Design the sequence.
């Protein structure tokens, strides 16, 4: 289970950000925001190669003492950032990857909603689905 | 810095650790060869083929040659690899069989037996040949024999285990060859031994690892075993493989910790769970930290010890591999995972101990890396190390907080105790760094020693970290560290230093729209600004926070109270005010004008209703809300008219404002879309296009500096416009959420008013919306009173009552009781006033206000309409009926002009074209009470009928036909049609042949009336008639007024028949019918029907002896070319003026076609003599020959029309060119005077037999 999931627009403003222990939301906001530094770095460093390989997963952005921050970037440069508790050793790279893929699919569904304006913040109705996605991935 | 001593590439510290090779046999010999051997062995690499599919490697071999001792051989179960002898060499230079047999063989056998006892198979016997030696001996056997003997005796099927080295100390090619062969053999055997022994070792190790689930298995023991392997690889300079061993150990341990966390605890692991007592950080400056290794070996190591040792080994190997950046990365992972593992294993750690350990470790790693890289390398790899810097900073910070070094007062005793405990845990400084000035140990100790020292170190670290983050473009990370620094400064009571960092971070978050960080940072900033006494900024931040949805209600209320309490303070300088942007305080949602078109007349009341959404959490009492209005006098006078303004406004008067750009301007780097409009400027005089262009209406949004758009906290840009025009609303309480505020204003000066700014004031605090956008305007106009008179129908019809609407637009004039409109009467137009005529008063917005009875008083000259009293800018509407008296255009052209009635200028033309009605304009002059000038209003009436008349004859009987055409759209009822002789001749009677007295005449139809003229005596030469018919619209039942009949006057002259003309065509004699091409006879007889009459008395009349005659000219014309007139077609006859006098003319005509042919026309003209003074005459013959068509045409015309009055003049005009010549004149007889009794008769002509004759005659 991820402790925080964020979808970030191409322009780096959050489209959706939700952390599961809500009491420490602010910390995760700061963390995800700071992680964009590394996302930017990774995208610009291996942008070309990534596009060629169609590899959207950016891997571990940076670890902190308590959390690991993973990144993923879609072709339209929408970023997904996931914060995972460091103590959660069950989550290996492959699980993270598949969680991101599910997140991406779910995000694509949101985009397909004709009532959704691309660029708008994603409403919390999405949360349920999102949580389901992430929870299910956690067990896989 | 304390650059460590070792240069690059790193020196291998394990000098003593080389694979051991034992030497037995002749020690002196070996000693002599050893220098060459140790030098030559590593010179050439050798391929090492590996088991388990591992990639082969080229390897440079070195060895540690030691004298053979039985103790060196490992006993069963000894896992030590470093001391393991990989190869045993027996050296001999024996060349003497005797000697061999005597000593060497025994020695060899003994050696072999020892080896066998230890089951060591890696051995080699080297026979050194020395030519010099050989020469000295006498009983020399061939060289081969000794070798062969040895091979025979010892090398059972392994002949390659005995090699010969020839003259090793000589410099010859043979020596070289021999060396090469020997070295190759040696290397091969060494590698074989490695492969075999290491393989065996690995197998054993694996077996041991598989036993890890068994009780009593010890990780430390296993660690030592696998490390042995690592050492060997390291010894062989296979650092990669060595690293793998450590990594495997690392992973194994990590897995155990994870499993432990999952409840699957291994016994041995509990040992690592002992409380942390020492936290002296990583030691990376020694290749092997023997102290820690021994702890592990003794199974006394703590988790941190194990991790530290493991990492120090990995670090060493990575540095050997020239991968310092991996060290940095792994270090960070290690530090994080250690912290995690301690947590997972629930190891008790004194507070701050880990922070110390991490801090020391970070610096140690950094210093270690700095020690082996140059500045440029470090600078270009900041991305790898900055994590450690930031981690160290973070840890130092938390240590500072922990030890009370950040508080204002400094550490208290508890803090000091804690510090002492922490320092105790560091132990003594390691000897290897004791001489380094900036060692991590010293730094930490110093930092914890005093508040000042801590500050220095913390600032150094923070600034370094920020600088590094910034230099590699990790701005967000830099800002986050900056925020920590700001927090630190705030704790240290230096808000002025904190502000910069907070602003920087806030700007970053605002630019990217991160709501929670914005809120949080703003909160910190508010605190900072409060302490700095930046009132304005603080209030602004407070207002932003008070409206921030991400804060709790309590927090919001707190910031709201801050504003309110400032606002309620008595300021020392009364004029001082603080202008803050409004959007955080309240947002303008919509604006509604009443009246909806936002146009008011001068003095009118305009109300502006705005909806503002208060963002404050509590109701706020605002002293005043004001809208600053910009006034401009509209230059284009056209714009002032109410009609224009009405058209150009939003229909319902509501202006919606887009939701205020949320505190996240980021959602688009896109700016608002351009709002472009076309602009055409026309010249006021002729409306031609002067200028055209495109106007961008939201320039102020687009062209502002990017900078200012992001720094919303900057309040300096708020300029309050001070205009004279302000809409105010005082004492408003704004509830949270939407509030409606109504402004009322009485319009004063005409012009355009633009709403510019919205401003809410709370004492000295002013919340200002600097631009109201989209543009909102209202207009004030002033209007002159106006009178508009317009028919209700499309056109007014003359003769029947028609409704006309009067509209009085009062404009700025107040209609008082007694004001009246004075209409000058027009004779031909009556103003009818029904009894119950009401005037309706409408307001400017077309709402009915009242109605009043309209009083109309008519005198001879003037009709006075009393207007009801009406206020300014109202409309008074009423209707009046007018009746234009019909004026028939007389046939004689003498139209009766009544009063100022003017026939329409195009009267004649319109009649001729036939489909338009004749019109008459009536100009009415109206005196209005508001003006000294009269208003002249023209009303155009159309005459609905067109009337024509004609005279019909039948022999001597005469008829008058009148045709009335209805040109209007209405149906009319005609009644009482009559024709009267205006001259009232007693002997003349008009007998109507019309049956019905009432007749309906439909739209666009005509009605004919016929009267027979009868007379008893001699008829008058001319008849003056007046046709009159009553008419009323067929649809209307009752008319209030009796209508005047429609009249038509005309005049008929010379209507009495004088001559009867008869023509007859008879076939040639002997034939029954006329034939084409054959001549027929035309007999014309002209008979005078009456005696001399008054009309005959003209120039043509000749008198001789009471006998009167007149000259007539006849003419036979066949316009349809049916006949060819042969011979003379005309002639002049003298006609006696006597009743029944007849003149016959015979002519020959030839029919040109077959069929029933009408007879040719016979025309009669009066032949006037040439002696007439005023007119010339035509030569009859020449005239006839010329056969002027124009004359004929005139005649035809006049035959059609009844009017023959002007025929003389027409004729004379036609012949004016002949003026002056004495020529006879012709005058057509008026149609009434000559009656053609054979008109309409036809003659049957049958076709001729021979057609060609016809053709000839035609040409």
Sequence:
């Amino acid at each position: 289970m991820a402790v925080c999931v964020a979808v970030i627009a191409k322009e780096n403003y959050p489209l959706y950000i939700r952390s599961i222990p809500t009491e420490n939301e602010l910390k995760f906001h700061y963390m995800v925001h700071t992680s964009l530094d590394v996302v930017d770095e990774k995208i610009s460093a291996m942008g070309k190669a990534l596009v060629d390989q169609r590899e959207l997963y950016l891997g571990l952005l940076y670890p902190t003492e308590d959390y690991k921050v993973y990144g993923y970037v879609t072709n339209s440069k929408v970023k997904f950032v996931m914060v995972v508790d460091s103590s959660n050793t069950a989550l290996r790279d492959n699980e993270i990857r598949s969680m991101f893929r599910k997140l991406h699919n779910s995000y694509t569904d949101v985009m397909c909603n004709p009532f959704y304006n691309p660029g708008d913040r994603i409403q919390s109705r999405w949360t349920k689905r999102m949580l389901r996605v992430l929870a299910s991935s956690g067990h896989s | 810095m304390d650059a460590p001593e070792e240069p690059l590439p790193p020196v291998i510290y394990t000098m003593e650790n080389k694979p051991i090779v034992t030497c037995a046999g002749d020690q002196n010999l070996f000693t002599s060869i050893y220098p060459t051997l140790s030098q030559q062995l590593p010179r050439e690499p050798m391929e090492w083929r590996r088991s388990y599919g591992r990639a082969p490697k080229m390897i440079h071999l070195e060895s540690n040659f030691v004298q053979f001792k039985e103790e060196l051989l490992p006993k069963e179960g000894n896992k030590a690899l470093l001391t393991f002898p990989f190869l045993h060499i027996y050296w001999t230079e024996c060349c003497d069989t005797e000697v061999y047999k005597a000593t060497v063989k025994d020695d060899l056998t003994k050696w072999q037996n020892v080896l066998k006892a230890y089951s060591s198979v890696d051995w080699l016997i080297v026979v050194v040949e020395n030519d010099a030696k050989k020469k000295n001996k006498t009983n020399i056997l061939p060289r081969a024999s000794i070798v062969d003997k040895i091979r025979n005796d010892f090398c059972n099927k392994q002949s390659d285990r005995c090699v010969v080295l020839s003259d090793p100390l000589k410099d010859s090619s043979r020596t070289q060859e021999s060396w090469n062969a020997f070295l190759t053999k040696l290397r091969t055997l060494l590698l074989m031994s490695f492969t075999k022994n290491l393989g065996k070792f690995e197998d054993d190790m694996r077996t041991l690892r598989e036993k890890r689930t068994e009780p009593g298995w010890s990780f430390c023991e296993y660690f030592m075993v696998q490390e042995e392997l690592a050492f060997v690889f390291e010894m062989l300079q296979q650092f990669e493989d060595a690293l793998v061993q450590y990594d495997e150990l690392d992973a194994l341990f990590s897995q155990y910790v994870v499993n432990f966390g999952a409840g699957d605890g291994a016994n041995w692991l509990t040992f690592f769970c002992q409380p942390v007592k020492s936290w002296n950080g990583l030691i990376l400056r020694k290749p092997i930290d023997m102290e820690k290794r021994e702890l592990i070996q003794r199974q006394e190591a703590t988790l941190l010890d194990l991790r530290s040792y493991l990492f120090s080994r990995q670090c060493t190997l990575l540095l050997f591999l020239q991968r310092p950046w991996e060290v940095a990365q792994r270090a960070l992972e290690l530090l994080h995972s250690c912290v995690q593992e301690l947590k997972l294993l629930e190891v008790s750690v004194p507070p701050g101990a880990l922070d110390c350990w991490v801090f020391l470790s970070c610096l140690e790693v950094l210093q270690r890396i700095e020690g082996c890289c140059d500045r440029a390398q470090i600078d270009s790899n900041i991305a790898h190390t900055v994590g450690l810097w930031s981690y160290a900073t973070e840890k130092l910070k938390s240590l500072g907080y922990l030890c009370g070094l950040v508080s204002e007062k400094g550490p208290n005793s508890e803090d000091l105790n804690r510090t002492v405990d922490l320092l105790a845990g560091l132990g003594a400084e390691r000897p290897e760094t004791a001489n380094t000035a900036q060692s991590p140990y010293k730094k930490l100790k110093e930092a914890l020693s005093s508040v000042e020292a801590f500050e220095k170190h913390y600032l150094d670290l923070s600034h370094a970290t920020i600088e590094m983050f910034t230099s590699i473009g990790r701005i967000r990370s830099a800002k986050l560290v900056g925020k920590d620094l700001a927090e630190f400064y705030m704790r240290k009571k230096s808000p002025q230093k904190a502000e910069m960092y907070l602003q920087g971070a806030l700007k970053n978050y605002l630019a990217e729209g991160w709501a929670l960080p914005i809120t949080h940072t703003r909160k910190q900033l508010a605190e900072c600004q409060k302490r700095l006494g930046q009132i304005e900024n603080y209030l602004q931040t407070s207002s932003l926070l008070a409206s921030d949805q991400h804060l709790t209600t309590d927090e919001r209320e707190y910031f709201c109270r801050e504003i309110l309490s400032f606002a309620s303070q008595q300021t020392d300088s009364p004029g001082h005010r603080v202008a803050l942007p409004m959007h955080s305080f309240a947002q303008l949602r919509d604006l509604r004008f009443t009246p909806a078109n936002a146009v008011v007349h001068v003095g009118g009341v305009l109300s502006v209703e705005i909806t503002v959404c208060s963002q404050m959490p509590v109701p706020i009492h605002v002293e005043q809300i004001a809208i600053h209005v910009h006034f401009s006098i509209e230059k284009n006078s056209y714009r002032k008219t109410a009609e224009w303004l009405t058209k150009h406004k939003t229909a319902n008067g509501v202006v919606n404002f887009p939701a205020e750009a949320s505190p996240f301007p980021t959602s688009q780097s896109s700016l608002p879309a351009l709002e472009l409009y076309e602009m055409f400027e026309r010249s006021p005089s002729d409306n031609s296009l002067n200028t055209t262009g495109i106007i961008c209406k939201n320039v102020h949004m687009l062209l502002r500096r990017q900078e200012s758009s992001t720094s919303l906290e900057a309040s300096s840009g708020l300029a309050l416009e001070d205009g004279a025009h302000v809409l105010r609303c005082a004492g408003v309480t704004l509830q949270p959420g939407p509030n409606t505020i109504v402004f009322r204003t009485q319009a004063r000066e005409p012009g355009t008013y633009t709403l510019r700014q919205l401003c809410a004031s709370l004492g000295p605090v002013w919340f200002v919306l600097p631009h109201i956008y989209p543009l909102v305007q209202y207009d004030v106009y002033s209007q002159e009173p106006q009178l508009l008179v317009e028919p209700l129908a499309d056109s007014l019809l003359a003769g029947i009552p028609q409704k006309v609407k009067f509209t009085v637009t009062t404009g700025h004039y107040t209609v008082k009781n007694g004001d009246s409109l004075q209409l000058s009467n027009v004779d031909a137009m009556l103003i009818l006033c029904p009894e119950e005529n009401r005037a309706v008063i409408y307001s400017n917005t077309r709402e009915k206000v009242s109605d009043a009875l309209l009083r109309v008083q008519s005198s001879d000259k003037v009709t006075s309409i009393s207007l009801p009293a009406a206020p300014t800018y109202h409309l008074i509407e009423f209707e009046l009926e007018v009746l234009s008296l019909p004026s028939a255009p007389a046939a004689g052209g003498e139209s009766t002009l009544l009063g100022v009635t003017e026939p329409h200028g195009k009267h004649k033309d319109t009649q001729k074209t036939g489909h338009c009605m004749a019109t008459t304009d009536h100009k009415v002059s109206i005196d209005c009470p508001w003006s000294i000038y009269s208003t002249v209003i023209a009303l155009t009436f159309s005459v609905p009928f067109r009337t024509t008349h004609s005279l019909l004859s039948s022999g001597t009987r005469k008829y008058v036909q009148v045709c009335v055409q209805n040109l209007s759209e209405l149906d009319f009822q005609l009644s009482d049609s009559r024709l009267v002789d205006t001259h009232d001749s007693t002997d003349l009677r008009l007998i109507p042949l019309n049956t019905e007295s009432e007749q309906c005449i439909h739209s666009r139809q005509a009605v004919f009336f016929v009267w027979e003229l009868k007379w008893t005596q001699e008829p008058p030469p001319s008849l003056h008639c007046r046709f009159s018919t009553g008419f009323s619209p067929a649809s209307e039942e009752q008319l209030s007024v009796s209508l005047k009949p429609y009249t038509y006057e005309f005049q008929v002259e010379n209507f009495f028949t004088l001559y009867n003309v008869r023509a007859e065509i008879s076939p040639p004699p002997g034939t029954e019918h006329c034939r084409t091409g054959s001549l027929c006879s035309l007999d014309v007889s002209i008979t005078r029907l009456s005696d001399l009459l008054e009309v005959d008395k003209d120039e043509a009349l000749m008198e001789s002896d009471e006998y009167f005659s007149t000259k007539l000219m006849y003419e036979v014309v066949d316009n349809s070319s049916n006949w060819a007139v042969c011979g003379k077609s005309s002639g002049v006859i003298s006609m006696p003026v006597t009743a029944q006098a007849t003149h016959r003319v015979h002519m020959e005509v030839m029919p040109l076609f077959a069929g029933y042919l009408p007879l040719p026309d016979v025309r009669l003209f009066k032949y006037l003599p040439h002696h007439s003074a005023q007119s010339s005459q035509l030569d009859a013959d020449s005239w006839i020959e010329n056969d002027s068509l124009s004359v004929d045409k005139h005649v035809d015309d006049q035959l059609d029309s009844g009017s023959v009055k002007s025929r003389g003049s027409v004729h004379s005009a036609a012949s004016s060119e002949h003026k002056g010549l004495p020529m006879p004149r012709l005058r057509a007889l008026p149609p009434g005077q000559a009656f053609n009794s054979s008109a309409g008769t036809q003659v049957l002509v049958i076709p001729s037999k021979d057609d060609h004759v016809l053709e000839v005659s035609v040409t």
